[in-house]
């Protein structure tokens, strides 16, 4: 008899929990958590600075998915030249041995006004991101070799990269690439999803 009472008690508790869960999920909830306040970081934008759609990417130069999304973002910027502006922030993942130094190198290129040129050459040469090759890439795009090498050797922008990583972690990012369209998060470079959200934002702002 005692055992039966225990079973009934357990079943009763489970039933109460299930009912409570059903009530909770049927209560309408605000979507305030869907839009996040995301800083654009320190790198110069590409696209129309006055655009209504602010696209922020957290990327990793050694991430294959980031490389795959690169042409997708270029197509979007081409198709929405007046409507979209892109900002890039560094989120080098620890699993990629050269991603952090590659991010530092990109910031050294930014020091000479060629962030996006260097950004592109890194993705074009994703299998050549060791320090020696990073210095060679700088020469290819016409950077001052001496200034670039000094910047990279001194790890001048290490703190900036760490700040980007800190912000990424505060946003609970799952990985790279992660995009924010006017604060709305899109994980991965799904072109259809990105375009859909851009169109929704454009309609909302009319």
List the helices and strands and how they pair.
Elements: H1 2-26, E1 46-47, E2 53-59, H2 64-79, E3 84-90, H3 99-111, H4 115-124, H5 131-140, H6 145-153, H7 158-170, E4 178-181, E5 184-187, H8 191-204
Parallel strand pairs: 2-3
Antiparallel strand pairs: 1-3, 2-4, 4-5
* SS content category: alpha+beta
Give the ordered list of helices and strands: HEEHEHHHHHEEH
Enter the CATH topology name.
Glutaredoxin
Poorly predicted tracts of residues: 14-33
Q: Share of helix among residues?
A: 40-55%
Radius of gyration based on Cα positions: 23 Å
As a percent range, the share of strand residues is: 5-15%
Tell me the span between the first and last alpha carbons.
69 Å
- In DSSP terms, counting alpha (H) and pi (I) runs of 4 or more, how many helices? 8
CATH superfamily: Glutaredoxin
Strand order of the largest sheet: 1-3-2-4-5
Characterize this entry briefly.
The protein has 206 residues and is an alpha+beta fold.
Characterization of the model:
This protein is an alpha+beta fold. Helix content is 53%, strand content 12%. The protein is globular. The protein starts with a helix and ends with a helix. About 10% of the residues have low confidence.
């Amino acid at each position: 008899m005692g055992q039966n009472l225990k079973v009934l008690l357990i079943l009763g508790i489970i039933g109460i929990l299930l009912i409570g869960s059903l009530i909770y999920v049927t209560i309408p909830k605000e979507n305030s958590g869907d839009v996040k306040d995301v800083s654009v970081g320190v790198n110069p934008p590409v696209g129309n600075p006055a655009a209504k759609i602010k696209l922020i990417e957290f990327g990793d130069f050694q991430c294959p998915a980031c490389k795959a999304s690169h042409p997708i973002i270029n197509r979007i910027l081409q198709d929405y030249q007046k409507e979209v502006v892109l900002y890039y922030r560094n989120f080098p993942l620890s699993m990629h041995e050269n991603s952090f130094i590659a991010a530092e190198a990109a910031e050294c290129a930014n020091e000479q006004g060629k962030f996006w040129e260097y950004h592109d050459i890194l993705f074009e040469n994703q299998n050549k991101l060791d320090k020696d090759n990073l210095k060679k890439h700088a020469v290819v795009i016409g950077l001052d070799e001496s200034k670039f090498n000094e910047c990279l050797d001194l790890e001048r922008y290490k703190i900036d990269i760490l700040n980007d990583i800190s912000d990424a972690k505060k946003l609970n990012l799952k990985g790279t690439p992660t995009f924010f369209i006017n604060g709305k998060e899109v994980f991965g470079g799904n072109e259809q999803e990105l375009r859909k959200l851009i169109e929704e934002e454009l309609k909302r702002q009319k």
